Amino acid sequence: MNQERPNEAVAKQIVERVMGIELTHADTHGGVDYLSLDGTVALEVTAVTDGEKKGARGALRKSEAKGARGLLPW
Fold it and tell me: What pTM does this model have?
């Protein structure tokens, strides 16, 4: 099981406050870091490196294949 990292917890708090939603830690076996309670929002927290961007894009593609909408800022 993946543990919640400190930078993930901070990002989660920011997104919850800005979007007015509640997120739950969902990355137990390599999935996205957080999901909203209704499953309509997924949050993947990454460091700014090319390798991490590639991983985030892969996670986003998997989520989109399951019907979730997403947007990467780059």
Answer: 0.59
In a domain, 73, yes or no: no
The Cα–Cα gap between 24 and 35 comes to 6
Task: Indicate the residue type of 67.
Answer: G
Residue length of the chain: 74
Distance CA 6, CA 68 (A): 25
Domain count, the chain: 1
pLDDT per position as a tens digit, 24-65:
999 888 889 999 999 999 999 876 556 666 677 778 778 888
Q: What is the distance between the alpha carbons of residues 11 and 43, in angstroms, rounded to a whole number? A: 9
CA distances for 9 relative to 51, 62, 64, 65, angstroms: 21, 23, 23, 26
DSSP 8-state secondary structure symbol assigned to residue 45: -
